[in-house]
Specification:
With 650 residues, this protein is of the alpha+beta class. It has a domain of 245 residues: Beta-galactosidase, Chain A, domain 5 (Distorted Sandwich). It has 17 helices and 29 strands. It starts with 5 loop residues before the first strand and ends with a helix.
Amino acid sequence: MRDIPVGNGSLLVTFDEKYQIRDVYFPHVGQENHTEGFPFRFGVWADGEFSWIYSDDWKRKLCYLPETLVTDVELTNENLGVEIVCNDTVASHENIFLRRVRVRNLRDTERKIRVFLHHDFRIYENKIGDTAFYDPESSALIHYKKHRYFLINTAPHFDVFSTGRKAFGAQEGTWRDAEDGILSGGAITEGSVDSTVGVYLYLNAHGEQEFYYWICAGTSHDEVIKLNRHVHEQTPQTYLNYTENYWRVWVNKNDMDFADLSAEIVALFKRSLLIIRTQVDNDGAILAANDSDVTERATDHYSYLWTRDGAFVANALDLAGYPFLTRKFFELCAKIIHDDGYFTQKYNSDGTVASGWHAAWDVWGQKKLVPIQEDETALVIWALWEHYDKFREIEFVRKFYRSLIIKAADFMVSFRHEAMRLPAPSWNLWEDRRGIHTFTCSTVVGGLRAAANFARLFGETERAESYETAAAEIVSAMREHLYSNELKRFLRSLHFHGDDFYEPDATVDASIFAAFYFGAFSPDDEMVENSMRAVEETLRVKGDIGGISRFEMDGYMRSEDLPGNAWFICTLWLADYYIARAETKKDLRKVLEILDWTTKRAQPSGVLAEQVHPTTGEPISVSPLTWSHSTFVATTMNYLRKLSLISEKS
């Protein structure tokens, strides 16, 4: 779990629940991770005793300063008689991680206290061939390999330092050397290396002192030297003040009326916007999550752009009034779309195709497959129209009309099951089955209608009609093939075995909310009502925790023998249904209950995970999940918009 990420779109630093730095991404969010998830340790020596802050001796409170991307961390160790308050941030416009450390002596006597900060860089995501050395030019420690440099410094200047070997034979690292309160390492080490610096403090009884610590990231020695000089010239506190003020202005850029929303909901709304920003790369990629712990169980991670997640996040940012971020996303999509008009499973932050598991070859049928989740293609076009419809900047969308919109729409028209006229089989949004899915079909309807709107915008009436016709055919076919008159609800999918044989999948799945959300069916259509009632009744997590699970007997990260964990996005989708159906303010009470439920299930820092344990409420899987935060933002905006409409009518 990652409780308090800080970043600026090119440098992202994440912490685990014990306040250890665990991920350092540079020069892209999500790419490359120069720690491989290994911890940077933080330790304290006092009166001959030593303790790392990850130990159970410490009480920790990990939060942010309100409305900022500056952390507010409290660490207390009664056994050592020490209290530490830390504020961490990444400078808003420079690649500098900065920390203020305030140490307080809890005892009645003068004391010598030593703080040790350890660095386990694995540059370019491996430990081979790194160098750590003391640089007299900057009076700092530097780790480097090829085009990646990380400079470490403090003010006042650190008293001791050590570089050494780590994870090699019996050598664990310089952090072990710190545990006696003394560092005795060398000035330079190459290979598998780490480093530690020590800051000595002399505190009066109940006195306190502070120091500053920073890491500059760059692509050359000269670059990190200049950044280090900037910190000294501007002073670390000035950098902290500027960054704190910048993010407070950023998150309050729009003069919003939050109506009857509680202070807690408003705070999580703003926190969600800030968390989302840390997960968006400056070149446009919107990362699903940056939590390297997942690699321990999956040998891969979530630090990728899924264009489906990206489209949902972009739409939420647009609704909240942050189009300057989403334009970069759409520009990237226009660059990476396949020549045949679709998006592959996922992408790296730099736009290259990422790892995937969707086969392009049917080994039994001996034929080519299109290895996609078609909703990822449809949702980009849907989100782009929503963007245009809100901001009306035709010059922006004009450059994507041929290269992105028409290319994707023509693919969606052609990629259909010949007999049923539904979208052809592809992978579903959960990536666990191949078939024709209610969710996918609904998004394709939304995408084709968006493309038709663009075609009319640019005066291509015949093209618009062809897209509208295809969308209408899909809606008609959904009524015939994806709605069960026997069960009186939408099927999850037609589950295909090859391309010739399929069977209905009647599993209740929260994703069937898409049938109304993207406009395929009206929210008051009896088919939608029946289906959403099934979601509410079947997928609601029993007990005090509550929430909505993904689908019946969900096996992913499943807790014990329970039917499934609560997912933030699925729970908020139910709120969106209530919003769509609401005619009076009273009808919106259930929405407020879900928004309030979400605030109560967030971490103390405001971070939302992917899932929540159904009996303990603890976060499960990756944290933060960008999609969780964006859905909270979108649902909140949908609520405020509907409340305004109801108020105007009354």
